[in-house]
Amino acid sequence: MLLTTVLLWALNLSVTKFILDEGLAPLSYAAVRYGLAAAIFVALALAVEGSLRISRTHLWRVGLAAVTLWVNQMCFVFALDLTAASTVGILLGAIPVFTGLFGLALGTERATGRFWLAAAVSFLGVALVALGAAGQVSASLTGIVLGIATAATWAAYSVVFAPLTRTYSVTRISAVVLPCTWALLALAGIPQIRDQDWSLGWDIWVLLLFATIGPLVLTNVLWFRSIRRIGANRATLVANLEPFVAAVLAVVLLSEPLGLLQILGGVAIAGGIVLARRRPMRTRAA
């Protein structure tokens, strides 16, 4: 499940970048994609469970998850619109570090010296990626900042969403969260949606359908089911493959340049994650 999720997430970066380059505005893309995904999840939840009921005590978390996902998607589509998919893919490698920082803020993680060293190494990698991408004609500082924000907000969304899976199925929560997120995206995207030229080629619509069913609907279920079955730490270790796979696919499919600083930055981000996950050796008793 995790390997399928990683591959679909990585491929989605190149697919989304191609769709945006072909003329679909960022918020027009996000609104259509999330509107379709919301309809699919509502239909699935009603067909399988027959209800969308959420306890009142959990409504605040559902609302927070919807707002966090809305901010995440705003950052995601505009980051890909302004910079290269390979750059955004590498920056997403910082998600585990941001997850750890949010865990510290919520009291679910301990602030060890190893973690702070790992965070420093990973953020050094982010800085190297930013410096390397800044020299590309296709990149912008705003796009790089939005790429970093995409990683941070996805970590926040996972932290907010995951506790709900202990009480409800992923399908039911998604059937409530995604329509709220779609409403926010549609409201924010009214100007772009109104001015959008919808006479797009059939290939764009096919790719948009793929980006909805695969990297959004299917992975949303697989990711949180994986976390519930094997834990967030082990799931994150496999998910660390995503930045590397995304960068390779962007170079191959979109012929995007990948400079030395970006490669070194990706290595530093991965090194920081490995350092954070590595357990200290235990000494044997005499």
Task: Give an account of the 3D structure.
Helix content is 78%, strand content 0%. By secondary structure, the protein is mostly helical. The protein has one domain. Helix 5 crosses helix 7. The longest helix is centred in the C-terminal third of the chain and has 29 residues. The C terminus is likely disordered.
Secondary-structure map with pairings?
Elements lengths: L1 H20 L4 H23 L10 H24 L2 H7 L3 H12 L6 H22 L6 H21 L8 H19 L1 H6 L6 H29 L1 H8 L1 H14 L5 H18 L9
Task: Give a quick rundown of the structure.
With 286 residues, the protein is mostly helical.
Task: Provide the gyration radius in Å.
Answer: 19 Å
Number of domains: 1
Helix content: over 70%
**Strand residues, percent:** under 5%
Shape summary: globular
The biggest beta sheet is recorded as: none
Average pLDDT works out at 81
Q: Give the number of DSSP strands.
A: 0
With helices defined by DSSP (H or I, 4 residues minimum), what is the helix count?
A: 13
Jot down its keywords:
single chain; 286 residues; mainly alpha; 13 helices; disordered C terminus
